[in-house]
Amino acid sequence: MTERLRVLIVDDEPLARKLVRLLLEADPEVVVAGECSGVDGVAEVARALPDILFLDVQMPEVDGFDLLERLGAEQTPVVVFVTAYDRYAVRAFEVHAVDYLLKPLDNSRFAEALAARRPGPARAAVARWTMAWRPSCTTVRATPGASWFGPTRRRWS
Hints:
This protein is an alpha/beta fold. It has one domain (about 5-130): 3-Layer(aba) Sandwich (Rossmann fold). Helix content is about 40%, strand content about 20%. The protein contains 6 helices and 7 strands; from the N terminus they run βαβαβαβαβααββ. A 5-stranded parallel beta sheet has the order 2-1-3-4-5, sandwiched between helices. A two-stranded antiparallel ribbon has the order 6-7. α2 (about 40-50) runs parallel beside α3 (about 65-75). The longest helix has 13 residues, at about 120-135.
């Protein structure tokens, strides 16, 4: 059996943390290493040493971007933003998030985001694709029928 992925959930809403935890606990290859609000995020990352951080954007006192800044590049694990706001998507990818999930969470989309973070050939392929395409991303649309636009296909609305 492979080593289980350690995940930390950072969100100020207990109900949102519970939903993410329930989705994660359904996967036998994942262990929830902890959960907290943004203000406790730095200490919890140091304690839990997660492989993946499921991170909300809008939180009182310390928002998701503030938390990443306080952690610094060396301490920041892989980040998947989980938020109700689509307007922060571009900024999330600028700070090297690997995914951006909108609340309310869709089970299949959540499973897809988690599957892409697994070790092994599938993860390596996703990582290569992400690194090849992320710098050229010009628009991310997080609405029904969303599209990922690359350097040659742009639509301005």
